[in-house]
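Thread: quick sanity check before group meeting

JM: Hey all, I'm pulling together slides for Thursday and realized we never actually wrote out the predicted structure for the chain we discussed last week. Dropping the sequence here so it's in one place. If anyone has concerns about the input, flag it before I start.
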Amino acid sequence: MRYAYAITAALLVGGTTLALTSNSTSVVAQTAQNEGMSAAAPRGAPVSLADMVERLQPAVVNISTRQRVQVQNQNPFAGTPFGSLFGGDDGSGGAPQTRQAQSLGSGFIISPDGYIVTNNHVVAPGARGAIVDSITVILPDRTEYTAKLIGTDQRSDLAVLKIQAPKPLPFVKFGDSTRSRVGDWVVAIGNPFGIGSTVTAGIISALHRNTGGADRFIQTDASINQGNSGGPMFDMNGNVIGINSQILSPTGGNVGIGFAIPAEEAIPVIETLRKGGSVKRGYLGIQISQLSDDMADSLGLPKNRGEFVQSVEAGKGADKAGIKAGDVIVRVNGQSVTPDETLSYIISGQPVGATVPIDIIRNGKPMTVRALIGERPSEDELANFAQPSQDDFSDQDAQSVKQAAQQLLGIAVQTLTPNIARQLALPAETTGVVVTAVDPSTDAGAKGLRRGDVITQANYERVTNEADLNRLAQAAKDAKRSAVLLQVTRRGTPPAFVPIRLRGE
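JM (edit): ok, ran it. Output follows.
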């Protein structure tokens, strides 16, 4: 189904000239409302972008892939005497079938001999087990070329392609994204929804925007939609300062929040891929979380300064340096950890094999360690790490919930015994208290604590029974803190620190 949207605006100026003569027929001379009009451009912006777009558009291309993916054929007669007639020996379903799939996106030519930049997700398999058979690049004049994949980098979501053309191709060059400022005008060119080359314009809405990884993005209100991925973002000098990559949208369409990979981040990756190399990034071997308001309050630390270590991978750089779960990392190699300069971003940029100083806060005391930076595993390797258990221990009786509602943390607990530890698949020597009920109206309930969770620490002190937990919660209240930092172990997952607000806070 196709939809077309149009908005028409008219500026009413000028007027009507009326000529009157006595004893004769009146003659009316009318002028078009828009006769001789010219809109004033905003300060610093051109009256029209047409000349610039005319020169840039030939270097922006459409990219499509053909893929094969195996899907299980659904047998409508499964479970009946006729089930085996439709491809399944046991009658439960048909044999797998190979089906064709496509992906669409954008890209841009960066050299006259046909090197092209796009997003990795534009040319990557779209489903588990899918195989990309071919990549096609379509120029604005509708000339098509089969592209060779030179290299990809999943972490930065970048890819480099190469096409062979009989003559030099139009291309564009990168600009300096470090000089970009919030409020600067930008132009995006791409292939939204596969409808063809489309130009949109807007401003830079934010810089250094972090969306949850090690990357930082340029945020723009220029219309970015599905299919714009991999297309260029230009400044008013016609230089590429970003590569359109993501959108934030509750509907799947443009809502004025798009993200582009800054040129300063993309250029080193593209040059490495173009030479046939792979991108190496720093790695410490830790699981981290943002220092939320509740967590900062429970630790008595300032907000927006540092990130919290949830767990440490054995044998990696952090472990060898003595970094422990519960530490707060505030500085790496002299660079402060902030919401804009995240720990992942800083570590990724450190040279592999370098030894760097890391400033941490442990139990409220600052200290410095030196860590050897390792090489970050591939995204596929990281994705294959153990997933959290889906077992649910949430069944709890009303009496236990009533007991939980009377506690400062909204949690009812009992001492963890070796027998209970075995039932929860925990080592028999594990010590702590097991949650028997959670008041759903409290912060503990809101943050997902549930029956069967094991609390081993509270504000870095070991908890072995209910009295320990209640004492430490009361101590936090007496110290005018509104939250307690709990270390929680759940079956099938490593221990995690969770800040829980006290009742009434």
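AS: nice. Confidence is low (pLDDT under 50) at residues 1-25, 385-394. The first strand starts at residue 16 and ends at 19.
JM: adding both to the slides.
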